[in-house]
TrEMBL record:
The gene is mltG. This is Endolytic murein transglycosylase. Belongs to the transglycosylase MltG family. It holds the Pfam family YceG. Functions as a peptidoglycan terminase that cleaves nascent peptidoglycan strands endolytically to terminate their elongation. The record marks E226 as: Important for catalytic activity. InterPro entries: MLTG-like (IPR003770).
Length: 343
């Protein structure tokens, strides 16, 4: 009997030590960093992936020591079926709870894409579709389907198949998650442009020779193309507003270039200025039928609040800016000075 008691006592001690060691391991698993790696891990979780598969993947990458324990932990917390699909950035210094929170409710990795002010819709689409991790849904080479995707009528003039899409998207930097679609990015850009234009139109200066927000958008796209100097935009807008008030033609080269289309080779010739296109503002009165590029918020604001000036002309100053003139005589002198700097 004494021998049995000694054995039982010894066994109890061993079991207690083992239990204590196991509890210590559990506490260590729960509280210590999940990995001794020095850099974060990016994992991509497909929709429908099981918690067991995710845990095993982390284990194989050395970012989790006990995948089954982690699975038990998720089940105990009732989070095993709530893991979010997408790309996660896992930090090695996290504990198990922080890892769980990221997988279940954390922010997924995002990538930036910039829509550039002054670019055409075709340039914009190409820029978007060159981005990594995007799902491509927009048929770039099929303008009719593009227009259908945005609920826009086909252009009247077949020479400009993308014209009705011009200017409709806000040139900003957007962030997207892996496998987000190019269509969704442009939908966000369109909503932002609509909001920007509507607000600016509501707060516009009184007496502008513009009948609709769309006319303001057209003019803003021209202003955007004429100057890359943000502080100049209200002055450029004022020149065109002043011309419209006087019944003068806008006579702006960017509209001529848009009218030339894919045949433009970098030079505007006399025949181009005489060409009868819907966009040649040397030949047509008023505004062209659509925007010619993406206008920024600054360009839209400039059109709604042009500078207080009587200027009717401007020409490059050779240093990135422009010289503004009230009369043709002053303008011609400014042109001569500019041409002299180009010799």
């Amino acid at each position: 009997m004494k021998g049995f008691l000694k054995f039982f006592t010894a066994l109890s001690i061993v079991l207690a030590l083992l239990a204590g060691a196991f509890i210590w391991q559990i506490e260590d698993f729960l509280n210590q960093p999940i990995s001794d790696k020095k850099v974060p891990l990016t994992i991509s979780i497909e929709a429908g992936s099981s918690a067991a598969k995710v845990a095993e993947g982390l284990y194989q990458s050395d970012y989790l020591s006990h995948p089954k324990w982690f699975l038990w932990y998720l089940k105990a917390k009732k989070q095993a079926n709530k893991i979010k699909a997408g790309e996660h950035r896992i930090q090695p210094e996290w504990n198990v709870e922080q890892l769980m929170n990221q997988l279940v409710a954390g922010k997924l990795m995002q990538y930036p894409v910039a829509l550039i002010p002054g670019e055409t819709v075709v340039q914009t689409l190409k820029q978007i579709q060159q981005q990594k991790k995007l799902k491509l849904e927009l048929p770039l080479e099929e303008p009719a389907k593009l227009q259908e995707a945005f609920g826009i009528d086909k252009p009247i003039d077949e020479r400009y198949p993308y014209a009705n899409l011009e200017g409709l998207f806000a040139p900003e930097t957007y962030h997207y998650e892996a496998n987000e679609s190019d269509l969704r990015i442009l939908q966000r850009a369109r909503r932002l442009q609509e909001e920007t234009l509507a607000k600016a139109w509501t707060e516009r200066e009184e007496g502008l020779p513009l009948k609709t927000p769309y006319e303001a958008l057209i003019l803003a796209s021209i202003v955007e193309k004429e100057s890359s100097v943000k502080d100049e935009l209200p002055k450029v807008a004022a020149v065109f507003i002043n011309r419209m008030r006087k019944g003068m033609r806008l006579q702006t080269d960017p509209t001529v270039i848009y009218g030339i289309g894919t045949d433009y080779d970098g030079d505007i010739r006399s025949k181009d200025l005489r060409s009868k296109t819907p966009y040649n503002t040397y030949q047509i009165d008023g505004l062209p039928p659509t925007p010619i590029a993406l206008p920024s918020k600054a360009a839209i604001e400039a059109v709604m609040h042009p500078a207080d000036t009587k200027a009717l002309y401007f020409v490059a100053d050779g240093n990135g800016g422009h010289v503004f003139s009230n009369t043709l005589k002053e303008h011609n002198r400014a042109v001569k000075r500019y041409l002299a700097t180009q010799k």
